[in-house]
Every structure is written in C-alpha cells, then in structure tokens.
Design a protein that fits this description.
Layout lengths: L11 H10 L26 H14 L21 E2 L4 H11 L1 E4 L5 H18 L20 E2 L2 H4 L2 H7 L2 H11 L4 E3 L4 E4 L12 H6 L7 E2 L12 E6 L8 E5 L6 H11 L1 H5 L5 E2 L27 E2 L7 E5 L4 E5 L14 E5 L2 E3 L5 H13 L27 H4 L3
Parallel strand pairs: 1-2
Antiparallel strand pairs: 2-11, 3-5, 4-14, 5-13, 6-9, 7-11, 7-13, 8-10, 8-12
Helix pairs in contact: 4-6
The structure holds 2-oxoglutaric acid (AKG).
The site of 2-oxoglutaric acid has 13 residues, from β7 and β12.
C-alpha cells in the first residue's frame, strides 16, 4: 500500500484514480461518500465492490494451514538473525542495506506499548461498535478485510501520535537520512481480529469473516520508474508477530538491482509505466524460477530470497527499503478460546523523510490533512489521502515536538 503522486492540488485526479484502482472509496469534494446518517463507528472505507470481492476471496482462506492449539507469543529463534539493538547501528544498517529489511528491538518500551494499545482502543471504541474486552461485540464491527483502519479519529488520534513521535523511532530514521529535520507519515492502522476466537467457533462463518485477507506481495516504489533508493518504510507492531498471528512478510534482497531487473521483466515495462508506485507482484512470481534466473555473469544478488514473515516482539520497529517486495501474511491461527479478548494484530506503519524533500505546497497540504482527519500513504513527502470523510473527527492538540513532524 503506497503512494503515487504528491497531493498539492494538482494531483487530486491521479490520487482519486489510484484510490479507485485500489478499491478505496475516494472523497468527492462537497459530496461525502459516507452516508451522513451512519454513526461515527461505521468506519469501513472499502467500497461495496471491494467488500464483495473480499467475501468471495474467503473461499481461499479455507486453504490456510491447520491452526495451533495454544497461543504462543514466542517469536522464533531465527528472528535473532535480523533483530538488532538500536545501539548496534552499524550492524542494523548493514542488514537493511544488504537484505532490504531489519528489526530494531524495543523501539517502544513495554509501558509505552501498553499505553499505545489502550489509547488506540479508546478511539476504536469511539469509531466502531467493538469493546476491547467483549469478543461478542466484535461481530458487529465492520472491519476492512485487510485490517485497514482509516478513520481520522483513529489515525490522527493520541495513540497514533504517541507512536509517531517516539524519540527512538525518530532517531533511527535520523540515522538513515543523516538529518533530524524529518516529517512523518500519517498512515492507517492495521487491525486484525483474533479470527479463531469468533464467538461461533474457529470454523464458523463468523470466523471466516473475521479472517483477514491481505493485498498480497507488492512494492511501494515502482521498480521501473524509480529504480534507485527513495525511502525506508517502518512498522510498529503492538502485539507479537508470530506464525500464529502473521504480520508483515518481506522478500529478502528483492530491493537489489538484479532482483528488480527480473521483476520488471516479469511484470512488463509497459504495465509498469502505467502504474504509480504501488505495484503488485504476480502471485506466483516468488514461487517459481523466474526470480532466481541466473546467467553466466549474474551476481549472487540476483537470487532474491523466499518470502518470509518478519517476526517481531511488541514495540519492535520493522524497517524495510521501499524497493523491497513485501505484503501482509495471515498466520496459522489458533484453536484455543482461552484468555482475555485480544487482537491478533495491531500495527502502525510509520515512515519519516527529510522535510527538504517536501515542497511548501505539500507541507501546507499535510497540515490541512491533519486538521481534516485524513489518513495518508507511507511517504510523508508525497502524501496521498487514503480515506474519505471522517465523520465526527476533531483534531487533538499536538505537542510542539509532534507538530514539528507535520
Ligand atoms: O503488513 C501488511 O499487512 C501490509 C503492510 C504494507 O503493505 C505496507 O505497510 O506497505
């Protein structure tokens, strides 16, 4: 999920065209897409057509691997190969450069993670019929199938801004860009219900409706028109990312030039020229031989790895190069119905870029987006609005350090 053209007044048509292509309802000035009679908690921003598609897609969910019988929040030992302490900057930056992704441990401490969950639930409870401790109330919650929560009350609320303004996260991006004068994305929130705990049971129609369906593997930077480094994206998971829950998956080394060349050949130059930055990878691409094509003089970097789930602890920061192929992966699930009601996933994408990359028009547009409760794509310097009218939205008071990120 990502951006195409900056929103500075000149590019609204392009923005709306892309939203349509993605199945996201666009906001028509003066004509809200959302029925004014709907309560604030009607937060689904996906068109009826897309909902329909997703309903049909539920057929494919039957093929998910067998669920586990107990919830484990333990991430696999192999994750230690790509999880680094923030202080080990040389190592984590090398991993990001070589592999196209990295995890930085404990960017939000346990107390902040708990507070962020609570603040995000405060606004989810305001915008949806769900109550955090009451699984029965989650049935009426019309959550987007991908788990995209885009109501401005959620994405511009206190919880989202608490995470966006974390000094440690900002410092990591400052290290990447070599400047602390950064602006931040105002992304959507990713929310997955624990589908195995649907009140009617793990195999019920309700569980099927709760099971997320992701966009699939894609890049957020057009490999043909923008082949060089542009941006690093980030994500802060507030619950453990394990093979039971799923989360973000990446294709290691898919950001490297030779892997890009092969991907461009697979998608086709003509098709890529007609696309913005969001480019889907053909579904079978990383499961066949194309991506590992070798020629007499090919370098080992032509061999992008297999897609892998990026396991992480709550509060870790996942970073990836925008050229890296990535997407959401739904986990195996679980058949236990024990314990307190808990989401399977609550993650905030977060991305910083230097203020100097944004024009004066873009900076002004970003302020207006905050004031109006808009939700953006990932690239702060090239923001595109992703949501429609946010009924009932009232901007929070940003602290000076938060406002400095607009
Ligand atoms: O983690 C996901 O479900 C998808 C995230 C994604 O595609 C993104 O942040 O660009």
């Amino acid at each position: 999920m990502d951006g195409q053209q900056p929103v500075d007044g000149r590019h609204l048509d392009t923005q709306q065209a892309l939203q349509t292509a993605l199945g996201i309802e666009s906001e028509v000035p003066g004509q809200p897409c959302m029925d004014a009679a709907r309560p604030l908690w009607f937060e689904s921003t996906v068109s009826t057509q897309n909902q329909q598609t997703n309903t049909n897609d539920e057929q494919t969910l039957v093929a998910l691997p067998a669920p586990e019988t107990s919830v484990s929040t333990q991430i696999a030992a192999e994750a230690s190969g790509y999880r680094f302490e923030m202080a080990d900057e040389t190592q984590w930056r090398a991993h990001l450069a070589d592999e196209g992704f990295v995890v930085i441990k404990s960017s939000a401490d346990a107390e902040t993670t708990t507070l962020a969950r609570s603040l995000l639930w405060d606004v989810l409870e305001q915008c949806t019929p769900a109550k955090r401790d009451d699984l029965a109330s989650w049935g009426a919650w019309r959550l987007d199938k991908r788990g995209f929560s885009m109501h401005g009350t959620v994405t511009q609320g206190r919880g989202a801004w608490l995470l966006r303004s974390l000094p440690s996260v900002r410092a990591d991006f400052a290290a990447i860009w070599g400047t602390a004068d950064l602006i931040v994305s105002m992304d959507l929130l990713l929310v997955w219900k624990s589908w195995w705990r649907a009140p009617d049971g793990a195999n019920s129609a309700q569980a099927s409706r709760w099971t997320p369906k992701t966009e699939g593997l894609h890049v957020d930077q057009n490999p043909l028109t923008k082949p060089d480094f542009c941006c690093v994206q980030g994500m802060l998971p507030l619950y453990a990312v394990t093979h039971l829950t799923g989360g973000l998956e990446v294709v290691p080394r898919s950001h490297l030039p030779e892997a890009k060349r092969l991907l461009v050949a697979a998608i086709g130059e003509q098709a890529l020229r007609g696309l913005g930055d969001f480019c889907r990878v053909p579904p079978a691409y990383y499961h066949n031989e194309q991506c590992t094509e070798t020629s007499g003089n090919s370098s080992p970097t032509a061999d992008a790895g297999a897609p892998m789930l990026v396991e992480a602890e709550p509060g870790d920061l996942i970073l990836w190069d925008s050229r890296t192929v990535h997407g959401g992966r739904v986990g195996r699930g679980c058949v236990t119905n024990e314990g307190a009601a808990e989401l399977a996933r609550l993650s905030l994408p977060v991305c910083f870029t230097p203020r100097t990359l944004a024009s004066a028009d873009v900076l002004a547009a970003r302020r207006a987006m905050f004031a109006e409760g808009k939700t953006t794509n990932h690239w702060p310097h090239a923001p595109r609005v992703q949501n429609q009218v946010s009924l009932g939205y009232a901007p929070i008071d940003l602290r000076p350090d938060e406002e400095a990120l607009l």
